[in-house]
Structures are given as C-alpha cells and as structure tokens.
C-alpha cells in the first residue's frame, strides 16, 4: 500500500481512511485476505441456496414479505427488485463526500466476509469508487434502521448500471454510460447480494466520522477565539491555571484551558481587568470557556469511541458466521450511532451559543471595557459589526433547533415488522448543517475578536505573539481589519473559509506548539 491507496481488509477500517476516500479521492483496493473471505462466505451462501429450506434474504422475500419462499428461477429477479424498489429516495442530492463515504463503508462490510457477497461484486464497488463515479443519492429515504436503505439502494443501482450517477467531471449521466466509459461491467446480483448491499448504517456512520474531523478543528479554533476575546476584553488568564483545572479533572476542560493559556502567553492585555472599573471576575462566557469547550471535547471523544466500534463492525442481516451459520440479527439498528450524532448537535449548539455571547460582549460599549460601540470606526456614522452579530445570532438560533434529538423519534414501517427505528440518518443530516453553521459562528467571533485586539494594540497594549500571528494570517486570508464601514459579507466569508480550512490553528501553532 502507498499513501495514495487504502487497502480494504477483513477487520474494519479507520476514520482517517474514511475521510481520505470520501473527501480526497484516495484509491481503494481489496486485500488478498478480503478476497479469500468473500469467496469462503459465498460458498456458504451457495450451499444454503441449494437447500429446500427457506433462508431469509437468500430464498425468501424481505421485511414483512419474508414469509414467501422464492423459487430458484426467481432469485436473481428478487435481488434486482429489492434494489430497484428500495431506490426510492426523494429531495435534494446528497453531497459527493457523503455518497463516497457511504459506498466505501459498505465495501468495508462486504469485504469482511460476513455478507456472502461474491468477490467480483466487491471489486466492482472498488472500481466505481476509483473511477470517481458517484451515484445520485437523495436526502430522504432512510429511517436509520434495516440500514440506510434508500441511499444504499441508489448506490447499488449504479453497480447494476441503472439510475443516474455523477462522473468525475461533475456531469450527471445514466449510470450505465458512466460504467461503460470506464470499462466497468455492471453486476448481475445473485442470492442475498441485493440485500447485503443496502443493509447497513454506512451513511450515518460516514457523516459521523466526517463531523468528528470537522469538529476537532472547530473546537481547537474556538479555544483560540475564546482566548482572543478574553484578551480583547482585558480579562484575566489566572482562571486558566492548570492547578484550577486539575481539581476538576475532566480531560477536555484541561486541554481547552491549556490551549487558551498558550495562546495568551506573553500578552500585554490580560490582567488589566480592574483598570477601568472594579471587576473581581470575568463574565461566564469568558471565564467558563474551558468548561464549556472542554465538555464538548469530551463528547467528541465519546462519539469517536462509538464510531470506532462501528467501523470495526460488520453490519448486515442475515450475517454469515465463521462456523457456517447464516443468522438473522438486529445489528442494523442505528441507535448507537444516532445517539452520538444527536449528542454532538447539542454540544455544537452550546459552543455556538457561548461564542455568540462573547461576540456580543465585544460589541457592547457598556460591557467591552473601553472598546468603541460595535467596534465601529466612527460610531453613529459607522455601524461596525452590529449586523455581523445579528447573522451570528440567527445561526445560533438555528443550531438550537437542530439540537432537538432525531433519535428520540421513531415511526413504524414495513407493515409493523420494522416497528422501531433510529432516525440516525436524519440525525446525521442535521448535524452536518449544525457543523456548517458552527464554522460560521466561530468565524464571526474570530473576526470581531481580532478587530478588538487590533484596536487595543492601537492604544499601546501589546497582544500575545500567538494573537498577533492569528491577526496577520486572517488579514492575509482576505478579512480586513478596523476601519470605516465597508461591504462586510466578503470579509465574513473569508474568515469562514479560513476557519474551516484549519487556517486559524495553523497560524498560531508555530508560536504555541501543537494544540489539543
């Protein structure tokens, strides 16, 4: 294997592999062990298919129709039909990276040797990924139980050369044309294969893995913006002392406090909290930043443990066991993944909320300890960042709505056979929106805090070296500094792009060392 290839084996995969394939187009290949496992499990399925006794998914119908035994001459049609009928998604197209994660994670489970799929089907899945062909998958169609059924069905439809897909050039064409253009032969599904291609938690898991990668960057970025806001408000860094956090030993809290302390090292602004008026303590949004950011960090760690377990899983029903049995099970239920997806939406909303409170404090002349109203150049003539905070507040309010758990809901389906579902796909979809919003919220705080720090510097107070590095990098990225009112949206967009690309963390780490 080289750095441009991810090998799919029999023992799960890593979060880094998912991100590499989904976002960066890294190639995949099947290991020799995976090919052997696929062949061995297929022999078991073929032997069962030859017997007169009905076996779910091999020689029966599906879901509430599982009581019907399907004759040999109808079984290929049965597998084609489950894909065609289940490819019933509606609504907007799902993002390319989500579909690639979906396909890659299904390939991971297929390659485990527990699904009974033939090696050539798995190889076709890898070939489609490597060709940059992305099935058209729609927003609605998964209840997060019995797998992400409609999304995975649209992917399986492409393997059959049916439906629509996006080519590597971004053009949507009939899937059969795209397969032919890349020399890929459509698969002809046999017993159990149609079912095995759509019976997993792959969509919600892929979105969880990518959300964790994004949130790690955003939590470190929010530690930096909290430090910048503390500095601009002439707050005290004494509350960040390690001995204070050691007596409440939540790991995330200690990590966030340490990040903030390192950003503020050498600041000439901190410790002036009683110069203009008696201030025994800073406001909660400043003083409690490590506690809030840290609790979110600990939630990310818990979610990463759950994601790791799911990445090591083989989710299918029925499943082929090493002793030759093919057993029905409920491992396709998305509850473990759905719960942490919802948990992440809650902590992301709260992180956005505390960021917005610090921004509002920076803009309010009654609470900013000497900063101009709204950080404006000529307040009254200029409105400064007044409406940037409105935008941030609107995003925070939406995040609170997105924090309502999807997994607390359930709706029966399949004639009451599937009478409790996880709604994990819905939890994942709203989390993606929440993460997107959080990046914008952190960017607005960064934009306000850097402007406020520059205004303090103009008064003769010297910001911390890390703060100076953050300001310089943000300005170089196209977000301008203090001055008369101007068209503000481009500056905010530049700050947003800077934050989500990891630019803020990269700017300060040469000064602070690696941040948690």
From TrEMBL:
Pfam family membership, one: Lyase_aromatic
Pathway: Amino-acid degradation; L-histidine degradation into L-glutamate; N-formimidoyl-L-glutamate from L-histidine: step 1/3
GO MF: histidine ammonia-lyase activity; phenylalanine ammonia-lyase activity
Keywords from the named record: Cytoplasm, Histidine metabolism, Lyase
Maturation and modification: Contains an active site 4-methylidene-imidazol-5-one (MIO), which is formed autocatalytically by cyclization and dehydration of residues Cys-Ser-Gly.
Cross-link annotation 5-imidazolinone (Ala-Gly), location: 145-147
Record's protein name: Histidine ammonia-lyase
Organism whose genome encodes this protein: Streptomyces violaceoruber
Phylogenetic classification of the source organism: Bacteria, Bacillati, Actinomycetota, Actinomycetes, Kitasatosporales
Gene name linked to the record: hutH
């Amino acid at each position: 294997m080289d750095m441009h290839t991810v090998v799919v084996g029999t023992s799960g995969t890593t979060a880094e592999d998912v991100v590499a394939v989904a976002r960066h187009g890294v190639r995949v290949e099947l290991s020799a062990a995976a090919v052997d496992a696929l062949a061995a499990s297929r022999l078991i399925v073929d032997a069962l298919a030859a017997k007169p006794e009905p076996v779910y998914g091999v020689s029966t119908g599906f879901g509430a129709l599982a009581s019907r035994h399907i004759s040999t001459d109808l079984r290929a049609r049965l597998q084609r039909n489950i894909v065609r009928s289940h490819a019933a998604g509606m609504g907007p197209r799902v993002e390319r990276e989500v579909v690639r994660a979906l396909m890659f994670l299904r390939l991971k489970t297929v390659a485990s040797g527990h699904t009974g799929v033939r090696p050539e089907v798995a190889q076709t899945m890898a070939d489609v990924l490597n060709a940059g062909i992305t099935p058209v998958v729609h927003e609605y169609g998964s209840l997060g139980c019995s797998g992400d059924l409609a999304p995975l069905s649209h992917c399986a439809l492409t393997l059959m050369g049916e439906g629509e897909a996006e080519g590597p050039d971004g053009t949507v064409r009939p899937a059969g044309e795209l397969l032919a253009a890349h020399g890929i032969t459509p698969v002809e599904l046999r017993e159990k294969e149609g079912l095995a291609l759509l019976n997993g938690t792959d969509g919600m898991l892929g979105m969880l893995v990518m959300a964790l990668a994004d949130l790690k960057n955003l939590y470190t970025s929010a530690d930096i913006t909290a430090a910048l806001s503390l500095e601009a408000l002439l707050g005290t860094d004494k509350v960040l002392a390690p001995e204070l956090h050691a007596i409440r030993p939540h790991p995330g809290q200690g990590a966030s406090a340490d990040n903030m302390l390192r950003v503020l090292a050498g600041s000439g602004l901190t410790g002036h909290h009683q110069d203009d008026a008696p201030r025994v303590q800073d406001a909660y949004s400043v003083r409690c930043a490590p506690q809030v950011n840290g609790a979110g960090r600990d939630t990310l760690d818990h979610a990463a443990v759950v994601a790791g377990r799911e990445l090591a899983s083989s989710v299918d029903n029925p499943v082929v066991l090493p002793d030759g049995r093919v057993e029905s099970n409920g491992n396709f239920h998305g509850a473990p993944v759905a719960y942490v997806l919802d948990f992440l939406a809650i902590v992301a909303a709260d992180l956005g909320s505390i960021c917005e409170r610090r921004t509002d404090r920076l803009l309010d002349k009654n609470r900013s300890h000497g900063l101009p109203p709204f950080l404006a150049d000529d307040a009254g003539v200029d409105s400064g960042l007044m409406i940037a905070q409105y935008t941030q507040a609107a995003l925070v309010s939406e995040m609170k709505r997105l924090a309502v758990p999807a997994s607390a809901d359930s709706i029966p389906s399949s004639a009451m056979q599937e009478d409790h579902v996880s709604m994990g796909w819905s939890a994942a979809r709203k989390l993606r929106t929440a993460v997107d919003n959080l990046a914008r919220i952190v960017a607005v705080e960064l934009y306000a805090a850097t402007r406020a720090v520059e205004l303090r510097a103009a008064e003769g107070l010297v910001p911390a070296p890390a703060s100076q590095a953050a300001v310089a990098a943000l300005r170089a990225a196209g977000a301008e500094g203090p001055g008369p009112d101007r068209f503000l949206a481009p500056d905010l967009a530049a700050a947003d792009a800077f934050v989500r690309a990891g630019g803020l963390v990269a700017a300060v780490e040469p000064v602070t060392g690696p941040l948690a």
